[in-house]
Amino acid sequence: MTPAVPRVLSIAGSDSGGGAGVQADLKTIAAWGGYGMTAITAITAQNTQGVQAVHPLPVDVVRAQLDSVAADIAVDAVKIGMLGTVELMRAVAGWLEETRPAVVVLDPVMVASSGDALTAVGDDDGRAAWARLLRVAHLVTPNLPELARLTGRDATDWDAALDAARGLAAEHGVTVLLKGGHLDETEAPEAAAAEVPDAVVRVGGAVHEVRGPRVTTRASHGTGCTLSSALATLAGAGLSWEDALERAKPWLADAMRAGEALAVGDASRPTWHGPVDHGHAQRG
Ligand SMILES: Nc1ncnc2c1ncn2[C@@H]1O[C@H](COP(=O)(O)OP(=O)(O)OP(=O)(O)O)[C@@H](O)[C@H]1O
Ligand SMILES: Cc1ncc(CO)c(N)n1
């Protein structure tokens, strides 16, 4: 039975500035008609200029939040964002292995758009923890640098990234939502200028690509969190990943276009990365 109002649990970090993390997730889930819940993994002191502090929560505090929700509330979809430490990655993987939610979207958050590190990666423990999470996820949403870290493969141009995404899907039995937002940093600027591609890559290798015009703005903080929670909400309401991406991508581009008008943060500073406007569709 598809729920009229999907109940969506975000397992993610808190962004005090409200543009990314659980704050972005709750706003996005509400914008798409879902009921949002959270299990907070870490508190970040963060604003539109960068991340000033990161404080991961104790494993038992995160586990208690997950157990409280699961003990009482049916969860139609889970979105996983910043996990912060390998211990928290393992704890969340363990909870997912026990509870097996119907829809699990894993946004493999490693660094903030400001460049600040948010989750440990790289050593053997980290790699094993990512592999466990990937096994219980239904959709993983890497950007190009995250895909390169997860696969150890080159993902600097779109075709190489699609190949690496097929490899990731086959290795872990997970559908991949490959995001092309970082292509302007890796491809020749003229090749990346006009459009930003995203693609759903299925385990068998089938690719469903959705392209949209590149929005020129520095209001790009939280785009990854926003996309993954939109997809989780839409999948919780019964849509396929392909249909969910067709709906979410143009909505996110509009949210980016509307971001600067929010007047959040000091945009005169070169470090400014303002939030997208998660509520733009409601504001009209
Ligand atoms: N300039 C842009 N114009 C239009 N869409 C964009 C642009 N940049 C990113 N996107 C879209 O935003 C989503 C996130 O993509 P991106 O590759 O930036 O992920 P990310 O790096 O995880 O995000 P974040 O900046 O939140 O960490 C994708 O759907 C992508 O297509
Ligand atoms: C808490 C948090 N999660 C994720 C991101 C990635 O954008 C961020 N900047 N902050």
UniProtKB/TrEMBL annotation:
<keyword id="KW-0784">Thiamine biosynthesis</keyword>
<dbReference type="GO" id="GO:0004789">
    <property type="term" value="F:thiamine-phosphate diphosphorylase activity"/>
</dbReference>
<dbReference type="GO" id="GO:0008972">
    <property type="term" value="F:phosphomethylpyrimidine kinase activity"/>
</dbReference>
<dbReference type="GO" id="GO:0008902">
    <property type="term" value="F:hydroxymethylpyrimidine kinase activity"/>
</dbReference>
<keyword id="KW-0418">Kinase</keyword>
<protein>
    <submittedName>
        <fullName>Hydroxymethylpyrimidine/phosphomethylpyrimidine kinase/hydroxymethylpyrimidine kinase/phosphomethylpyrimidine kinase/thiamine-phosphate diphosphorylase</fullName>
        <ecNumber>2.5.1.3</ecNumber>
        <ecNumber>2.7.1.49</ecNumber>
        <ecNumber>2.7.4.7</ecNumber>
    </submittedName>
</protein>
<dbReference type="InterPro" id="IPR004399">
    <property type="entry name" value="HMP/HMP-P_kinase_dom"/>
</dbReference>
<comment type="pathway">
    <text>Cofactor biosynthesis; thiamine diphosphate biosynthesis; 4-amino-2-methyl-5-diphosphomethylpyrimidine from 5-amino-1-(5-phospho-D-ribosyl)imidazole: step 3/3.</text>
</comment>
<keyword id="KW-0808">Transferase</keyword>
<feature type="domain" description="Pyridoxamine kinase/Phosphomethylpyrimidine kinase">
    <location>
        <begin position="15"/>
        <end position="271"/>
    </location>
</feature>
<dbReference type="InterPro" id="IPR013749">
    <property type="entry name" value="PM/HMP-P_kinase-1"/>
</dbReference>
<dbReference type="InterPro" id="IPR029056">
    <property type="entry name" value="Ribokinase-like"/>
</dbReference>
<dbReference type="Pfam" id="PF08543">
    <property type="entry name" value="Phos_pyr_kin"/>
</dbReference>
<comment type="function">
    <text>Catalyzes the phosphorylation of hydroxymethylpyrimidine phosphate (HMP-P) to HMP-PP, and of HMP to HMP-P.</text>
</comment>
